Amino acid sequence: MSTLALDAARRASPATTPARLGPARLIAFSSLGMPLAAVEVPLSTYVPPLYASAFGFSLGTVGLIFLLARLWDAVIDPAIGLLSDRTRSRWGRRRPWIAGGAAIFALGAVPVFLPPAWFGPLALSAALFVLYLGYSMMATPLAAWMGELSGAYHERTRITTYAQALTCVALLLALVLPSLLVTRLADQPRLELAAMGAMVFALLALTLPLGIRALPEPPPPSGAQDPVRVWHTLRLVFGEGMLLRVLASNAAVRLAQGVRTALFVFFISHYMGHPAWAPGLFLLQYVFGIFACPLWLAIGRRVGKERAAVAGELTQVAINLGLLALAPGSVALLLALTVAQGLAQGSGNLMLRSIVADVADYHRLRTGEDRIGLFFSVFSLSDKAGVALAIGIALPLAAWIGFDPRGSNPAPVLEHLKWLFALGPAFGHIISAAVIHGFPLDERRHGDIRRQLAARDAAGLVSDASRDRWLAEASREGD
C-alpha cells in the first residue's frame, strides 16, 4: 500500500481522530430503547397474574404461553441480526427494521394490553408472538446501530452509557406505575392492563419519531455480499473465541441478576418480614442505577473496559456477601446494601455490551465480513439464556430447602433462603469476573485494529473514511 494511502488511513481512523456526538442527539437516539425496556417489567412480572385473574387462565397455562413466547423471541434474534447486517436501502440498514418492528410491536401489544372479551390462550399466544417479533426487530438492529456510531474505544462506552441510563428511567417508570395502580385498581385487572399498555404506547409514540431521526446511519461497508449461508455464518460466529468469552461473562451476569430478582420479593417479604417494602426497594435500586451510569463510564475510561467489568462484578460479589450480615431488624443495612446494589447495577452489562462492538471490529478485520448485528443478536441471546437459567435454578432450589411462599416458614428455612439469596448472585458475578478477566482486546489493540481497517478502507475496500466524515457532520449538527 502506498504511503499516501497509509496517511489517509491514519487521518480517517476513528481510533485516532474520534468525533464526539452531542448529548442531546444521543439522548434522543437512545430513547428508542425506552418502550422496549418499559414493556419488560409488565410482561415478566404483572401481566401473567392479571391474565389469570381476569380471564381465569390457569397459572400453568399462562406460564407456558409466556415461556414459549420468550423462546420464540430468543430464536428469531440471530436471524434478524444477520438480515439487518445485509440490508441495503435508501433509508439505511437499521432504520427500516426499527420502523417496521415498531409497527409490528404495537400490533401485538394492543390485544395483549387491551384484550377483547373473547380472548383465549391461543389468541394471547398469537399476540405475544407478534409483539416479540416486533420487539426483536427493534432491539437487535438498534443495538447494532449503537455499536456502529463510533469506532473509538471509549466513545462506544459513552454511547452505551446513554442507552443504559434511559433504560433505567424506563424501568423506573414501569415499576412506579404498577405500584400506584395496585391500590387504585386492585379489583379491575382490565384497567390495570390498559394503564400499563398506555405507558408503553405513549413511550413508543414519543420516542420513535424522535429517535429514528436523531442521527444519520453510518454508511455500510462497500463491496459485494456473499450469499447467506446460515450454518457457515453461525460456525464462524460461535468459533470466535473472544465473542464466546463475552457471551459467557454476560450470561453469568444475567444469571446472578435473575437469581436476585426471582428471590427478592420472597426474601423481603418472608425473611425481612416487610412485604410492602419490595416495590419501594426496587424503585430505590433503579434510581441509584441511573446515577451509576456516568460513574462506571468514568471508571471504564480510567482503567479500561475489562478492568471496569471485573471491578463491577467483584463489587457486586461484596454487596451480595454483605447480605449475610442482615437480620430481620437490620433496616439501615438493608437500605445501604440496596443503594450500593443500585450504584453497582449494570456495570458488567455496560462494559460487556461495549466490548461486543470491539470484537465485531476484530472479526471484520479477520474475515472481511461485517456481522455486528449478528454479534449483538447472540449477545441478546446470552441475556435471555442467563435469565431463563436463573429462574430454572433459583425457584427449584428455594423449594428444595423447604421454602413455602404461601405459608409460614421455620427460622432455619428462612436462614437458608438468605444464604441462597446472597450466595446465588455472588456465585454468578464471580464466574462473570473470572471469564472476562484478562480479556485481550484492550484500548491499544483495538486502536491497532481500527487503524488496519482504516488502511484497508483507504485502499477502497470499505468506507470508514466516509464514516468519519459522517461522524464529523453528525457532531456539527449536534448541540
From TrEMBL:
InterPro entries membership: MFS_2, MFS_trans_sf
Family that this chain belongs to: Belongs to the sodium:galactoside symporter (TC 2.A.2) family.
Source lineage: Bacteria, Pseudomonadati, Pseudomonadota, Alphaproteobacteria, Sphingomonadales
Name used for this protein in its record: MFS transporter
Keywords: Membrane, Transmembrane, Transmembrane helix
Sequence intervals crossing the membrane: 50-76, 97-118, 124-147, 159-181, 193-212, 276-299, 319-344, 419-441
Top-level lineage group: Bacteria
Listed Pfam families: MFS_2 (PF13347)
